[in-house]
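Tutorial, part two.
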Amino acid sequence: MSEPPSKENPKELKNDDDRALIIINDLHKSYRKGTQKVTVLTGVNLSITRAQYVAFIGPSGSGKTTLLNLIAGIDRPDRGKLVVDGIDITRLDDSKLSRWRARHVGFIFQFYNLIPVLTAFENVELPLLLTPLSRKQRKKHVTAALKVTGILDRAFYYPSQLSGGQQQRVAIARAIVTDPTIIVADEPTGDLDKDSAVQILDLLHHLNRELGKTIIMVTHDPRAARKARKVYVLDKGILRDQYENDIIW
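Running the prediction step on this input gives:
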């Protein structure tokens, strides 16, 4: 397996937007369902700038989550190029891709994915156990992440002792504790009541606007989509449209 392209290779990574953090060229993805081939994404081309807040919307089965998983290095495309911060992650072997994902991607899920036998603090600390940080350094990072997400006072509560909104705050703290290059959010408000959803969207907005985090979100929630700076519409695996929100930016 050859090494991924370096940032010093301008010929391969040339793009009109020098600030582009993510460059997607002619991305295709399909799955096998029995004897049938099901096409999920067809020739997606896209660039996302650093510190952008993007939402993918579209009907069920349009390829939104698949595209999110490809950007996050959870899945691999059939063909095409996907460059994140100068690295074509489609060329990484499984071991390198796993290490890249742990270092560069923070995940926020609809159903939180917290470990029920661990406290909020311990859940947030989990990604740091894969790093060379000392216990003291891990504590400093976890405390900072819990403080940013407004859940520090619940650090030693278990998930069952927290509301849905509080659990999602813990999940967001876990996503940012390693200071990832990108944060991917799959329906982050899908399991929340209206008030909790508004609070989580405000928090994501703060992470993007005040801390400069790059956020890529999949959502069916129009309120969530309106919080993003740029919205992309996927339909039947094709990127159909895009528009920018300017109501709060």
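The two ends are 43 Å apart (CA to CA). In part three we will examine how such features are distributed along the chain.
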